[in-house]
Amino acid sequence: MKMRVINFVKRAAAVLLFAPALTLAADVSVNLDKAPVSTEPAALQHGAKLFVNYCLNCHGASYVRYNQLENIGLSEQMIRDNLLFTGEKVGDLMKISMSRADGTTWFGAAPPDLSVIARSRASGDGSGADWLYTYLRQFYRDPERPTGWNNVIFENVGMPHVLWELQGEQVAKVSDDGHGGKHVELTLAKPGKLSVEEYDKAVADLVSFLVWMGEPVAEKRKAIGTVVLIFLAGFFVLAYALKKNYWKDIH
What we know:
Elements: H1 2-27, H2 41-55, E1 61-65, H3 76-82, E2 93-94, H4 100-107, H5 117-120, H6 128-135, E3 139-141, E4 149-151, H7 164-167, E5 168-176, E6 182-191, H8 196-214, H9 218-247
Antiparallel strand pairs: 1-2, 3-4, 5-6
Helix pairs in contact: 2-8, 6-8
């Protein structure tokens, strides 16, 4: 009985905690864009570069080791010279020095670990990759926010737009969507270092890397699965031929 009460209190607390966020999300009409996820080594290497330079300051990837980047075509020396910013050895985990307490103090909430972020953000509206791809392209200037930034699909987010130098600065125009909610239209007020197409490609590469981090052995698993299915298909043919030969003289 005591455990039931405790579980009920936990569920009630979770509902109260996330209810404001769900309400905010319901007020804004947003369609997720399809993420052009790639498994090409060049795209994953570019995504790794963006992740280490722009994300790894605040977000860790504590389930991934630097030497696993060799699976996307990087040599140990390349990792050591260009990507080993938060570790001493290529076998170290991709952790950060910022504590959760400091993250909560500085941003209002501790930045999440990004090891499996592409999986955890999956929903009925689209995959986690779609959410991340849309999210990273939907930041806009908001002087009322402490960081000076807001996001269309994550209203009042505590994270600043770390890629703003690449994308530039967007401004938002809010209107009624005709269904009791609001529609936010973004326009590029100040261009960044990249064109719109180049920035979208950069975000796609970063998201591809985040997807890869969620399961670094995915391609190997698929290859093994294909071999297993081929083996089972061949074994079925042999087993069926043996069965027919065994039963041919039995009436």
